[in-house]
Design goal:
212 residues, mainly alpha, globular
Length: 212
């Protein structure tokens, strides 16, 4: 890794170095970019991950065998559009999550900026590419217990890996403790889950009298 530029200032890692560092030395890598997050590199990484996963979702659509044939056929035809919509929603979610995490990080005394959180979210999504091989295995071994187990276990491992990278990244970017980084992630999801539960219970409570 090149540590110095010609003018003597510390330089940020290149794209390949950044990806390698996030995967294998995440603490040192996120710490090295905390003062000047490479948002453009993060955008490129996020774009590649979303494009690859959307392409796989289009080429390997979900199994619609358990739904009525007319709905299954309609959903299969809508596969490419669903993939495009999913990609757009991924970018919208990227900005929304960054804003929410930055808000809670500031509440916990974080010193980072929203651009840093955007970069961390993008880089923490790198392991998501590894889900693709598991989806391919799951598609060709759908009737096999071993294939299903490998797919589920691999996908879960990749998900946990991404969460760990997100915790490390937020901790280094915001310059606070691991506990505060975990709270910054969990509290918004907890609030969203509790809100959804209240809405569902309210809707069920409103429908039950009419059903009776």
């Amino acid at each position: 890794m090149n540590d110095l530029q010609e003018n003597g200032n510390i330089s940020r890692p290149g794209l390949a170095e950044l990806v390698y560092g996030v995967l294998f030395t995440p603490t040192a890598t996120f710490r090295s970019i905390s003062a000047n997050p490479p948002l453009f590199h993060g955008f490129i990484v996020f774009l590649v991950v979303v494009a690859l996963t959307s392409l796989v979702n289009i080429l390997i659509p979900p199994d619609f065998s358990n739904v009525p044939p007319e709905f299954g056929e309609a959903l299969a035809r809508a596969g490419p559009f669903i993939g495009i919509i999913g990609a757009l929603l991924a970018f919208i979610s990227w900005f929304m999550q960054a804003g929410i995490f930055q808000l809670f990080a500031e509440f916990f005394g974080g010193k980072g900026r929203a651009t840093g959180v955007l970069t961390v979210l993008a880089l923490a999504d790198i392991p998501g590419v590894l889900v693709i091989p598991f989806k391919v295995v799951g598609h060709f071994t759908a009737s096999s217990f071993l294939g299903t187990f490998v797919t589920v276990a691999g996908s879960l491992a990749v998900f946990v890996w991404g969460i760990l990278l997100l915790v490390i990244g937020l901790r280094e970017i915001q310059q606070f403790s691991t506990g505060k980084a975990v709270a910054t992630i969990l509290i918004p999801f907890g609030i969203a889950g509790l809100t959804a539960m209240i809405i569902i219970i309210s809707l069920v409570g409103a429908v039950i009298p009419f059903a009776g």
